[in-house]
Design a protein that fits this description.
The structure holds two protein chains of two kinds. Chain A is built from 13 helices and no strands. By secondary structure, chain A is mostly helical. Chain A has one domain. In chain A, helix 1 packs antiparallel against helix 9, helix 2 packs across helix 9 and helix 3 runs antiparallel to helix 9. Chain B has a single domain, classed as ABC transporter involved in vitamin B12 uptake, BtuC. A two-stranded antiparallel sheet of chain B has the order 1-2. The termini of chain B are far apart. The chains are: A mainly alpha, B mainly alpha. At the A-B interface, helix 4, helix 10 and helix 13 of A face helix 4, helix 9 and helix 11 of B.
Chain lengths: ~300, ~290
C-alpha cells in the first residue's frame, strides 16, 4: 500500500509539473498547446538517450529541458507569426509526427522497444528506500518550479502575459513586444513540460512511444481546466483530482461486471471528455478560480 | 511497381474524400470563428452509422449512406446545441478545446459500442477495371462522382440561395448581418447540419476506400487542416482544391518517404504554407 501510494504520488507530482507548464501557456498567456505531451516526450527521450549513452545526468537533465523549450520556441515562432489558431494544429501535428518519429527511427530512439535501463540518479545511495527518495526529489522539483512560476506570475513579465491573454491589441498599444512575450511564455511552458518528462523517464527507467499518445495531452488539459486555469494552485489541485478520476474509474470494473477491457477504457475516456466539456461550459474558472486582483 | 499515375489517381480519390470534411471544417471555422476538431470525428460517426444500417439492418449501402448523412448531421446539430452554443461568446480557443473534448467523447462512444476491430461494409466485391495501365475501382469512381456532385451543390447553395447568401453574410460580419435581420441561429443550425452530413458521407467513403475503425476520422484531422489552410479558410472551392493537392501529395509522397509518415506529410504542408503563403493558395480576406 505504501509502495502504491509512493508511486502514485510521484506520478501526480510529474503530472502537476506538466500542468504547471500548460498553465504558463494557456492559463497565463492564452496560447493553445494541443501537444503538451510532445514536449514532455522530448524531455524524457533526450535525457534518457543521453544518459544511456553515458552522458552525466548533470548534463542530460538540463539538455532535456533545453531541447523541450527550444522545440516550443521554434513551433511558436512558426505558428504565431500569423493567426493564433494555427498554433493549435501545429502543436497537435507536432505531437503526432514526433510519436511517428519515435516509433520509426529506431537507429536513434530504439523504436517500439523503447529505451530501457535508463540510469536512476543516486540509486546507489538509497538502496532500500529509493522510491521514497525519488518522491521527495519530484516534490522538491515541483515546489521549486511552483515557487518560480508564482514569482513569474506576479512579476511585470507575468502581468504582460495576462494583459496579452485579455487583449493583445491593448498590450501592443502599450508598447509591449507581444510576439516576443508569447514565444518566451510558450518556450517556458514547454521547458517545464520537458522537466516533467525528464523526471518521468528516470523514475520509470524506461520510456516507449506509446506512453505519449494524444489523449495524454487531453488529460493535461482536463487537470488544468478542473483546477482552474490562470493560477498555479489550481494546476496542482487539478492534477490530484484527475488522478482520483483516472485511478478511481479503474476500480469500476470490480463494481460493474459487464465492463470488459476495451469498454472500460472507452468508458473512462468518455468520462474524461464529458467532464472536460461540462467544466468548460458550467464552471470555466475551475475549482479554484484565479483571483481577479491577484498580483 | 505501379506507375506514378496510379499514385496520382489514388491521391485524387483520397483528396475527393478529404474535400467533404474540409469544406465543412473551413466554412464552420469562418462562420463560428473556431477550428472545430470534432469535424473529422464526424467521419467516424458517419462510417459506423452506415455500418449499423448496412451490416446490422441489412440495408443496401446506398440507403445506409443516406442514413449516415442524416444521422451525422443530427449528431453535429446535437453537439452544437449541447456543447458549443452555451460557449458562443467565449474565447475562440476555449471552443477549440471543447471541440477536442467532444471528438474524444464521440470516438470513445463508437469504441464502447463496436470495439477496436477493423470492419468493412457488406458490399459485393467487384474487380477493378484496367484503363490505360491504371487500376480503377468501381467504388473509387463512385466516390469521385458523388464528391464532385456534392461540392457543386454546396457551392451553388452558397452562391445562389437566400440561405447560402445569409450564411456568407454571417461569416463575414455576424453583427451587421444580425442587425439586417439574418436569423443567425437558424443559419448556424443549417451550416452545422450540412457540415456534419458532408463529413458523415465522407466517412462512409473512407470506410469503403480503406477500412472502418474508431480512429479513422481522428487520423485525418491534420490532412483536413492542411487542406483548409491551403485553400484559404472559408472558401469552398479553395477547400476542394486544397484537399485534392493534399491527397495527391500524400499518396505520391509515399514513393519518397515510408507510408507510416503519411500524417507527417500533411504536417509539413501546414508548416510550408504557414512559412511561405500564409493566406492560402487563393488568398482569403481575413
Amino acid at each position: 500500500m505504501i509502495a502504491y501510494l509512493t508511486a502514485i504520488l510521484t506520478l501526480v507530482g510529474v503530472r502537476a509539473l506538466l500542468t504547471l507548464g500548460l498553465n504558463v501557456q494557456w492559463g497565463l498567456t492564452g496560447l493553445v498547446n494541443l501537444g503538451a505531451i510532445a514536449f514532455f516526450a522530448v524531455g524524457a527521450y533526450t535525457s534518457a538517450l543521453l544518459a544511456v549513452g553515458g552522458v552525466s545526468l548533470l548534463l542530460a537533465w538540463p539538455a532535456g529541458v533545453a531541447l523541450a523549450a527550444g522545440a516550443g520556441a521554434a513551433l511558436a515562432i512558426v505558428a504565431l507569426r500569423l493567426r493564433e489558431d494555427y498554433l493549435a494544429i501545429v502543436t497537435l501535428g507536432f505531437a503526432e509526427v514526433l510519436r511517428l518519429f519515435l516509433l520509426n527511427e529506431a537507429w536513434l530512439t530504439r523504436g517500439a522497444n523503447g529505451v530501457t535501463a535508463i540510469p536512476r540518479p543516486l540509486h546507489a545511495w538509497f538502496p532500500s528506500q529509493y522510491h521514497l527518495f525519488y518522491l521527495i526529489l519530484v516534490l522538491a522539483a515541483l515546489g521549486l518550479v511552483y515557487a518560480a512560476l508564482e514569482r513569474v506570475r506576479r512579476s511585470p513579465f507575468g502581468r504582460v502575459l495576462r494583459a496579452i491573454r485579455e487583449d493583445e491589441v491593448v498590450a501592443a498599444v502599450a508598447g509591449k513586444p507581444v510576439f516576443r512575450f508569447k514565444v518566451q511564455a510558450f518556450a517556458l511552458g514547454a521547458g517545464v513540460a520537458g522537466l516533467a518528462g525528464v523526471l518521468f523517464a528516470h523514475y520509470l527507467a524506461y520510456v516507449e512511444p506509446n506512453m505519449f499518445l494524444p489523449q495524454e495531452s487531453l488529460y493535461v488539459w482536463l487537470a488544468l481546466i478542473l483546477g482552474g486555469s490562470g493560477n498555479n494552485r489550481g494546476a496542482l489541485l487539478g492534477s490530484l483530482v484527475l488522478l482520483g478520476l483516472l485511478e478511481g474509474s479503474r476500480f469500476a470494473k470490480d463494481v460493474i461486471p459487464f465492463l470488459t477491457g476495451v469498454r472500460l477504457a472507452a468508458a473512462q475516456q468518455i468520462l474524461v471528455g464529458v467532464v472536460l466539456v461540462v467544466m468548460m461550459i458550467r464552471r470555466p474558472e475551475g475549482l479554484l478560480p484565479e483571483t481577479p486582483g491577484s498580483k | 511497381m505501379p506507375p506514378i499515375a496510379q499514385y496520382v489517381f489514388n491521391g485524387i480519390v483520397t483528396g475527393g474524400i478529404l474535400a467533404l470534411p474540409t469544406v465543412a471544417f473551413s466554412l464552420l471555422w469562418r462562420l463560428l470563428r473556431f477550428p472545430n476538431f470534432a469535424v473529422s470525428t464526424y467521419l467516424t460517426v458517419g462510417a459506423y452509422a452506415a455500418l449499423a444500417l448496412n451490416a446490422g439492418a441489412r440495408a443496401p449501402l446506398e440507403a445506409a449512406w443516406l442514413g449516415a448523412l442524416l444521422a451525422t448531421g443530427g449528431v453535429a446539430l446535437a453537439v452544437d446545441r449541447i456543447a458549443f452554443r452555451p460557449m458562443r461568446d467565449r474565447r475562440p480557443f476555449s471552443l477549440a478545446i471543447a471541440s477536442i473534448g467532444v471528438a474524444f467523447v464521440l470516438e470513445n462512444v463508437v469504441r464502447f459500442v463496436w470495439g477496436n476491430d477493423f470492419r468493412a461494409y457488406d458490399v459485393p466485391v467487384t474487380r477493378a477495371a484496367s484503363v490505360a495501365g491504371l487500376r480503377i475501382g468501381h467504388e473509387q469512381l463512385l466516390i469521385l462522382g458523388v464528391t464532385v456532385a456534392l461540392m457543386a451543390l454546396a457551392q451553388a447553395f452558397l452562391l445562389h440561395t437566400r440561405l447560402g447568401v445569409a450564411m456568407r453574410a454571417t461569416a463575414d460580419n455576424p453583427l451587421l448581418s444580425a442587425v439586417k435581420g439574418v436569423p443567425t441561429n437558424h443559419v448556424i443550425a443549417v451550416a452545422t447540419f450540412g457540415g456534419g452530413a458532408l463529413a458523415g458521407g465522407a466517412g462512409v467513403f473512407l470506410g469503403l476506400d480503406a477500412s472502418i475503425d474508431p480512429l479513422m476520422g481522428g487520423g485525418i484531422i491534420i490532412s483536413v487542416f492542411a487542406a483548409a489552410i491551403l485553400g484559404g479558410i472559408g472558401s469552398a472551392p479553395g477547400a476542394f482544391a486544397g484537399a485534392l493537392i493534399v491527397g495527391i501529395v500524400e499518396e505520391t509522397g509515399t514513393l519518397i518517404v515510408p507510408p507510416t509518415y503519411k500524417t507527417a506529410i500533411g504536417f509539413v504542408i501546414i508548416l510550408a504554407v504557414l512559412l511561405v503563403r500564409p493566406s492560402g493558395l487563393a488568398g482569403s480576406r481575413s
